[in-house]
Amino acid sequence: DDLWVVSGKWMQQLIADINFADYESRMYFDRQLRKSGLFDRLEEMGIEDGDTVSLDGYEFEYQY
């Protein structure tokens, strides 16, 4: 439906290194996801604005 689940060792390591309470750390997280091609792949698969993305338990709303 509107829940996209992504997991993997690389993702677990990235999430462990992020301080989600810190703005710069969250921006680093976003840059790493974009550099990895994750968002491009989700878009190819049909993700839409407002869908929920779950990355090893960390959830956020996808916005293009």
Describe the 3D structure.
The model has no long low-confidence stretch (mean pLDDT 93). A hairpin with a 2-residue loop joins strand 2 and strand 3 (58-61). The chain has 3 helices and 3 strands, in the order E-H-H-H-E-E. 47% of the residues lie in helices and 19% in strands. It starts with a strand and ends with a strand. It has 64 residues and is an alpha+beta fold. The longest helix has 14 residues, at 23-36. It has a 3-stranded mixed sheet.
Give keywords.
64 residues, alpha+beta, three-stranded mixed beta sheet, 3 helices, 3 strands
Q: What does the secondary structure layout of this molecule look like, with pairings?
A:
Layout lengths: L2 E4 L2 H8 L6 H14 L1 H8 L6 E4 L2 E4 L3
Parallel strand pairs: 1-2
Antiparallel strand pairs: 2-3
Give me the count of strands. Answer: 3
Secondary structure: helix percent: 40-55%
Strands of the biggest beta sheet: in what spatial order?
1-2-3
Query: Proportion of β residues?
Result: 15-25%
Question: What order do the SSEs take from the amino end to the carboxyl end, as H and E?
Answer: EHHHEE
Number of helices: 3
Distance between the termini: 18 Å
The radius of gyration computed from the alpha-carbon positions, rounded to a whole number of angstroms, is 11 Å
Uncertain residue segments: none
Mean pLDDT: 93
Overall 3D shape = globular
Structural class: alpha+beta
Biggest sheet statistics: 3 strands, mixed
